[in-house]
Amino acid sequence: MRAFIIRRIGQSILVCLGVAVVTFLLLRLAHDPVYVLLPPESTKEEIETLRKAMGFDRPLPVQFAFFVGRLLQGDFGNSFVMAQPASALIWERMPATLELSFAGMAIALAVAIPLGVLAAFRRNTLIDTFCTSFAVSGQAMPIFWLGIMLIIVFAVQLKVLPVSGSGSLLHLVLPAVTLALNLAPIIMRLTRSRMLDVLNQDYIRTARSKGVVERTVLFRHALRNAAISVVTIIGLQFGRLMGGAVVTETVFAWPGVATLVVSSIYNADFPVVQAATFYLAIFIVAANTLADIAVAWLDPRISRG
Amino acid sequence: MKRTATGFALILAVLALALAAWPGAAQAAKGDDTVVLALGSPQPTMDPRDHRARVGIIKDWHVYDPLMRRDSRTGRLKPGLAESLKPLGKLTWEVKIRRGVKFHNGEPANAEAVKYTIDSMLDLKNKFLGRGNYTWIKKAEVKDPYTLHITTKDPFPLVGEFLTTVLPVPPKFAQKEGKPGMAIRAIGTGPYKFVSWKKGVSLVLVRNDDYWGPKPAIKNLVIRPIKESATQIAELLRGGVHVIRQVPPDQVEFINKSGAASVKSAPVLRVVYLQIDQAGRDSRSNKALKDVRVRRAIAHAVNVDGIIKYILQGRAMRSATSVSPMAFGYDGSAQAPKHDPALAKKLLAEAGYANGLTLTLHTYSGSVMAERQVAEAIQGDLQRAGIEAKIFHFDNVGVYTKMGTTGKRGDLTLASWGSRSIFDTHQLLLPIFHSKDPLSYAKVPALDKEIDAGASTVDSEERKQIYKRAQQIILDQMLVVPMYGQHELAGINKDLELEPAGDEILRLYEAKWKK
After folding, report:
1. Does B4 touch chain A (CB under 8 A)?
2. Which value does ipTM take for this structure?
3. Which residues from A are below 8 Å from B22, CB to CB?
4. Global pTM value
5. Closest residue of chain A to B9, computed from CA coordinates
6. Fewer CB under 10 Å: which end of chain B, C or N?
């Protein structure tokens, strides 16, 4: 088990470094920051002066060497737009993003797993149809549209929840629900299908025939086995969670990393985009690694290879 | 087997607890003399010297004091922190600073402070992004505590205009705190004082009760970044936000009918025009554009009045020459090319293109209001005259500006120009029409001469004549299709009295609650 964990963590570190390099190159292919930092009305002199001052007149390999050198010290440089260290700006926003992501994931799990189990247990009944249609419609709704609809209904018409912003638990409700509705369908459908597989196996029939209570069969015998693939999917869903957070944060003006990243991309604020991508990559990779380790713990066969 | 179910229950319980325990900060109270402004992008640094962002300039005019301010109704210059401005000879200007004004931290706002601000800006080591607004200054000298002499590099007619971009900062604080400190706190002499700034959440300001000028009627001002226009409108209707900018034209009626808010518009300096690659700067451009008859055909084909009426719902100001009617030097007697598809066809045939012509039409998001619809309308008009236009749309203005300066814009460009909020014809003619400027796609030596003359002449009457001749050349040569000046569309809460301004700087310090 220990060797397995060490190997997975080693791979994760390589992935994070790869992400840093790719981000560096992609940003420079896509943008010339001086044209974004200065308004279109700027003169040629202004543009060239700024290019020199920022060091963008140096060859790309030189810029890359500087970037890597600083990266190894955990320094992403100062934001062009806010004149503050990029890392500090990201960490300032991280709690809000984590708050939203965990709330979204918690609601998604709280809805999806019971519904998935229920749908499998009551397969081909009205309940199953209801759960499955919930999943399909949840998957079909674009997260952006869903967010706006929730705002219109609950904030503008019913006036029970705030439209946007942060500061109280009430502010968290709409964005977290939006994110959860985006995540829940896939988790629910997977739980349902895995449960169906497991419920058809011999050991379940054995358990039932020796008189084990149905609840125990469902949650102790079946769910534990079904959980293995569900946990893997939850780990993988962290990527989707972050992508969903970008849209959700933008719609709800939620002060997280995602809104910062979006505005930084528009502003060609390289240091911030680089730092944010790097840290988010660490989070996603860490979530996946944890999921792998959790699966190995649930199913000891995996770590023994 | 027991571990699974308990494990899940445990995870959920921990998440739920973490969620419940999260500190819920007090919600901003409403109805307590607080006006909330939503802006589409987050605030850059608080240092007025180190950004060129519109949302930052709006904040600057509330916390800092420009040396010259502009009357939001008439558009004319009026004294700001400077009490008066007068020329002493060709290159030197005397600036009298208002007496007894203090920065919000108590430092005196005198001639020394202004000189410090200018010097720090000109010092290349500081890498300030706003430096471009100061490069006309050769030096600033303190004559007495409230008198400053500013010497220009060349005779410069726009000193007063450019002093609206000089916003003095407190020297001691700036030196002690450096860039990082100035970036997170705003200390000026303006009508509002900095209280707190939580990035991505809100910038909170409070009325400066010691302000030298008229004090704001509303005590608290909160500026929130909300990127999404639909969210801004929802907040406006709900009352969580009182003022929003850049309302999409197709949402105006919806807001007006809501009963919660209404849209007010004001003509602004920004003009929209269809640029033609007359100089053939882009090697891929169609050579037909070198023929003035073809350029005239394009101008007569486009129904500019129709675009204003149907797409912008009348919220635009027709320009006959592509110069903003609000700018000094606009030729009010000039005649815009008439919409005449038959004439357009005739001109094309004369030029040898009776069988039609294919051109590219570039545009980009960010500054031309409803740019996709306007571009498509132009495309339709051109098609009726026998010109096939292919539209290329760009989302990123930075990428697009670079294409412009490197000569890759192609045949036609639906573009706009804000003239740096300087209300003078020169600010449009130089960059868009002078053959030596990187964004210009025109090459007419006679026009270059007029533009150069306008820049070095200080006498107003003489300059007017120069610009009249320049605009006539633009029309004779049809270097662009002149279109219109845009409006600023602001959504304003029904209980609030506020007028949008012609320089796109909302002045909340002039706002008041309706009785």
Report:
1. yes
2. 0.81
3. 99, 169, 172
4. 0.83
5. A110
6. C
